[in-house]
Specification:
With 264 residues, the chain is an all-alpha fold. 82% of the residues lie in helices and 0% in strands. It contains twelve helices and no strands. Helix 5 runs antiparallel to helix 6, helix 6 crosses helix 7 and helix 10 packs across helix 11. The two termini are 31 Å apart.
């Protein structure tokens, strides 16, 4: 947790400060900094798996950083709509809005822990794979709709449902049922991201974009390297390798920036 928190804090602070130099809005700088601070779990774990480095010291540290960032995405997704509401009202955070958001999240987590075991115990008696998969899908859609009704992000609801399903006693059955679709859906996600790229903007500012991507990557590699040789107690080479493997900006950046665009 310490290493993941340090990566999140330092990257957010440095990237946010750079954005603030061009955009005089602390909310925009904060959201962009948070988005850029998250690394890609899908790419990082895939690279570690291909290199068979999950069990190494730098692989375990990288996994810890990625896991912390995935958990940190929950409050980040909750904060983004609140920042948009505060900006439209021309003021700061409303304590009522923050309390409502935290209350809804706590209620979903508590309710999920109580109700999901009962739901899947009843579904498992049917002995049907299709019914089991449909129940998991119903949980995700229902949680997302509940979050939307509460004025929060649909994405946050879906992510919370995934966390609850991953921590249920039926997680292995759910994982085996959705395994055939995981790679396909992940591919569709990246295809959708690629299709949303503004090619005209790339043609107008190619050098700025290349230097920006390279700068963010090198910044995160440097931070991860420092954490690896410091709190992580790795040698220089494994620490640098860890930074190179998970120094990229993650897929959650697209989700966070998309939510920020809707909330502005």
């Amino acid at each position: 947790p310490l290493e993941g928190c340090t990566v999140l804090d330092l990257t957010t602070a440095l990237a946010g400060a750079a954005v603030l130099a061009f955009v005089p809005d602390w909310r925009a700088a904060l959201v962009i900094g948070l988005a850029l601070s998250l690394s890609s779990t899908a790419i990082g774990m895939q690279l570690l798996g291909e290199r068979k480095e999950h069990g190494t010291e730098h692989g375990q540290l990288a996994f810890g950083v990625l896991l912390f960032q995935d958990v940190a995405a929950i409050p980040i997704l909750a904060v983004v709509p609140l920042l948009g509401a505060a900006a439209s009202a021309g003021g700061g955070f409303s304590l009522l809005s923050v309390g409502k958001a935290m209350g809804v999240i706590a209620a979903v987590i508590a309710g999920g822990r109580l109700l999901l075991p009962l739901l899947f115990q009843a579904v498992s008696r049917a002995g049907s794979v299709e019914v089991f998969s449909a129940a998991a899908l119903l949980v995700v859609i229902g949680t997302a709709m509940l979050m939307q009704l509460a004025g929060l992000s649909v994405t946050l609801g879906a992510f919370l449902a995934g966390v609850l399903l991953a921590n249920s006693e039926f997680r292995h059955e759910i994982e085996s049922h959705i395994e055939p679709f995981k790679g396909l859906l992940l591919g569709l996600f990246f295809m959708a991201v690629g299709m949303s790229i503004d090619l005209d903007l790339i043609r107008q500012f190619p050098l700025v974009i290349v230097l920006g991507v390279l700068g963010v990557y090198l910044l995160k590699v440097a931070i991860l390297f420092g954490i690896g040789v410091g709190p992580g107690r790795l040698a220089a080479a494994p620490a640098l390798l860890m930074g190179a493997l998970i120094g990229q900006v993650g897929e959650f950046a697209f989700v966070i920036l998309g939510e920020a665009n809707k909330a502005k």
